[in-house]
Amino acid sequence: MFIAIILGSILFVLAIVTGVISYYAFNDNRKAGGIVSVVSCVVLTLAFLCVPFSIKTVDAGEVAVVKELGKIIDTREAGTHFDFWMTRSYEKYDTKVRQLDITTQSYSNDKQTMDVAMTVQYQVKPDAAKEIAVTYGGLTALEGKIQSIAIERTKAVLSSYTADKIIMERGTVSEAVSTSIETAVGNNYHVDITMVALTNIDFSDAFEKAVEDKMIAEQEKLKAEYEKATAIVNAEKELEVAKLQAQAKLEKAKADAEAQIEVARAEAQGVKLKSVEVARALG
């Protein structure tokens, strides 16, 4: 575009200059010089009208489909090109990654309704721009086709899962949706799918409330089971402690009884010895 502006400006100035020269040449009766100037002015004017507008620029990340009198004839990649503007026109296609934000309604395997939001990113194959122009007439129609496929495949995948599983295994479900869309698009639509992501899955308020209540009930059940197990463990600990304490008391009682027996034996032995001594004393 910059080159076209500069060249156009130069040709425009030269055309004006030669026009002025031809005017003064005819006024000075210099017909030969005037004719040359007029011819030069006409040529420069035609060049100004044809050349700058025929210089086309295709930016990086774009590819242009060339139409000649409405018929698609070729493509142009990034760079500067010359195509006569009166007969040829450019229709540019963005080959950078493009994004579709899609919303739809779907159903789970157990008939739960959900609102689904998803993002599909794709990239046009540069060498397929001509086929896209011929088949779809432009990116708008192609994007509409990709969106329809994405919605159809998403509904098919989600309908094979129960609502609970969609909630609990969202990563797995999202990967299944992505694989299904990529397979369906394949090489049939002149694009590469670069990313598919389920950005939101919103169930009905009643179902979400039921799921919340179920989770609370399960948590309370787990809590009760934990408390029961803890109580059993504590009871077993207390029983073990009681057994140990009783065993200790029994052992202590045995020890005391044995000690008393030994004392009695000692006392009896003492009495016996004294009796012997008395008997000896009495002769």
What's this entry about, in short?
The protein is an alpha+beta fold and 283 residues long.
- Using the CA coordinates, give the radius of gyration: 50 Å
Encode the helix/strand succession as letters: HHEEEEEEEHHHHEH
What share of residues are in beta strands? 15-25%
Helices and strands: which structural class?
alpha+beta
| Number of continuous helical runs | 7
* Helix content, binned percent: 55-70%
Strand order of the largest sheet: 3-2-5
Distance between the termini: 154 Å
How many individual β-strands? 8
Which spans of ≥5 residues are poorly predicted at pLDDT below 50? Answer: none
Kindly report the average pLDDT value: 77
Shape: rod-shaped
Largest sheet: 3 strands, antiparallel
